[in-house]
Specification:
With 517 residues, the chain is of the alpha+beta class. The chain is built from 19 helices and 23 strands. Its main location: cytoplasm.
């Protein structure tokens, strides 16, 4: 797979070539103007040549083009962290990335206008809206808000799909369920997203076969055919209690006019949010919050609706971890407590102290929230290993935060990430900033604390939660740390640096002044 820097070089090279051709210049003529060789220009246009900012400036002037601006905006974004500072104050938990993604995909089921209120304006949402826009769906952020309006076209046009955006997100898999109601045959680019090892799509296909879908993967595409005469004749038993698998099955069932029963369904936070959203569309769903869902779908959906996705328990856990590693008292508002109870129970066993308010209800009318105030104090390693389970167990996406928390605790903590083949390996990066991490196998790490934190320069892991874990560890490191290429963090968090700075952190985002492979 091409690196992100290589992709940027190819993109900028293409921009240079287009600008040169518009001005009727040969590669040799451009080379003469910027003081290089024709072969160097050829390599630049193919994305195979390192580019300094000085050379980009010369090319921009020679072509009278804003290439320098385009290039600068595509440079990898980094963070400089002045660590060792205590945090204070209060911070709101933003709405859930995964609930937003589910509702964005579900909006394709609706022929009317959907308005999603107070979305996190993150890269993952940007990628999906890019794909939606490319196939004819109109999306726009309403003025002076974080509200996204989604208006479907008369007919979706998959021939114009933005493949670059589609391949950068695994969410493209969640287009299968909605699109099966629109096409008898279609293709989608293969999925991407976080680098977390082999993640089979078979559970998705197993669920959707009950609705007549068959899929073949070849040449970088999913080739899909749908037999509309096939309908579920018995309860669908999911072979994996996965969040996106359950969501795809819900998309399929939502526009099927009969009754669908889904067993071994995920009851995680984003699935519950999707169920509440589908109810707004007129779909009847019983069993929300359990592993058995009973859905009565509707053949056509054409409603103008608005929906408020609920708050993100993974961001809430991130903020709890930030308070713990910096030994700070902060108040985290709008915590979805139902999806944090196991995590807090484990933290209590480790000695973590906190106060919470009475419960109140999120804007979706369903999710229970509290405000939580952290109390700094010594931690000890838990007696048992820490491992995830499907909800109501410890959330798989919250597991990595226990690595940086364990590094602050006295004793040895075993963390077992049985879901992903290599995410535990990324946690080994904590050693670069002073943690003691023993990689026992691709799924298990032993962490000895307390860490002797030290500032360092680290390349951000290519997976969202481990990337944030390194950032949080750097908050504890006295001195200046650099976290390079933080795109993956921006996939899931909105303005995390600015919001932590408002609590007293010292984080500066910056771009390098040249490209290198």
């Amino acid at each position: 797979m091409e690196s992100m820097v290589q992709q940027q070089l190819v993109r900028i090279g293409g921009t240079i070539r287009e600008a040169r051709l518009e001005r009727g210049l040969t590669q040799s003529a451009l080379a003469a103007q910027v003081g290089t060789s024709q072969s160097a220009v050829a390599r630049i246009e193919q994305g195979g040549q390192n580019l300094s900012m000085d050379m980009l400036t010369k090319i921009s002037r020679a072509l009278d083009s804003e290439i320098i601006t385009v290039a600068s905006s595509n440079l990898p974004l980094n963070m400089r962290i002045e660590g060792g500072k205590q945090l204070s104050g209060s911070i709101d938990v933003r709405t859930s990335k995964n609930a937003a993604v589910a509702c964005l995909c579900a909006a394709m089921l609706n022929k009317g206008r959907t308005t999603l209120r107070n979305l996190a304006r993150i890269e993952e949402v940007n990628r999906i809206t890019e794909v939606l826009n490319s196939i004819g769906v109109k999306t726009r952020w309403l003025p002076d808000s974080s509200d996204l309006e989604i208006t479907p076209p008369e007919k979706i046009d998959l021939s114009t799909i933005d493949e670059v955006a589609a391949r950068r997100t695994r969410t493209i898999l969640m287009f299968l369920g909605p699109l099966m109601h629109e096409f008898d045959t279609f293709e989608l680019p293969n999925a991407g997203g976080c680098d977390l090892g082999a993640r089979t799509v078979e559970p998705h296909l197993h669920a959707l076969r009950a609705f007549g879908m068959s899929v073949e993967a070849s040449n970088g595409y999913y080739h899909v055919s749908v037999d509309n005469s096939v309908r579920p004749t018995k309860p669908i038993v999911l072979i994996e209690r996965g969040d996106t698998v359950t969501e795809n099955a819900l998309f399929a069932a939502a526009r099927y006019e009969g009754k669908t029963i889904i067993r071994n369904a995920s009851s995680n936070y984003m699935v519950q949010d999707l169920c509440f959203f589908l109810r707004e569309l007129g779909v009847s769903i019983e069993g929300v919050g359990t592993t058995t869902l009973e859905i009565q779908g509707v053949g056509e959906i054409n409603k103008d609706i608005e929906y408020f996705p609920s708050e993100d328990p993974i961001e809430a856990m991130s903020l709890v971890a930030a308070a713990i590693v910096t030994k700070s008292e902060i108040t985290i508002k709008r915590v979805p407590i139902e999806f944090m109870e196991i995590e807090l129970a484990i933290l209590e066993e480790m000695g973590f102290r906190y106060e919470i308010t009475e419960e109140y209800v999120s804007a979706n009318g369903e999710t229970r929230l509290v405000d939580l105030t952290t109390k700094p104090g010594p931690l000890k390693a838990p007696t048992d290993k820490i491992h995830p389970l499907p909800f109501p167990g410890l959330n798989i996406d919250n597991l990595p935060f226990f690595a940086v928390i364990a590094a602050c605790a006295e004793g040895q903590t075993l963390i077992h990430d049985w879901v992903y083949e290599n995410r535990a390996i990324y946690l080994n990066e904590l050693t670069k900033i002073g943690a003691t991490v023993h990689l026992m196998d691709p799924h298990r790490v032993m962490i000895e604390g307390p860490a002797k934190w030290r500032a360092a320069e680290v390349m951000c892991p290519p997976a969202l939660r481990p990337g944030v874990v390194i950032l949080l560890g750097m908050l504890a490191c006295p001195g200046t740390s650099i976290l390079r290429n933080i795109y993956v963090i921006n996939r899931g968090y909105e303005e995390l640096d600015e919001r932590l700075n408002a609590l007293g952190a010292d984080i500066t985002s910056f771009r390098d002044d040249e490209f290198s492979n």
